[in-house]
Amino acid sequence: MSAAILSWSLWAAQIMLALGMSCAVFRMLRGPRAQDRVLGLDTLYINAMLLLLTVGMASGRTLYFEAALIIALLGFVGTVALAKFLLRGEVIE
Predict the structure, then answer these.
(1) 17, 29 in Cβ contact below 8 A?
(2) Which of 72, 86, 75, 80 is nearest to 33 (CA)?
(3) Which residue ranges run through the membrane (predicted)?
(4) pTM value surpassing 0.85
């Protein structure tokens, strides 16, 4: 019973995260300002990271956890670089 509930909840979480990713892509494409597009990108990488974590939990492989960690680190650095570019007009001073 417990394994069935875990399997169902992981499946439901993956579907909801995929819907969240589609909403983030919509915000990236249709955002009226650049800040909205950066926020959509930030949301997209967080949802992608969480989707990889749920896939890793469902399959039991550690490779997905390492890929999620890399996506989290690169996504954070990318968000900081884009925010700095939007604020000052240059990334490297």
Answers:
(1) no
(2) 86
(3) 6-26, 38-58, 64-87
(4) yes
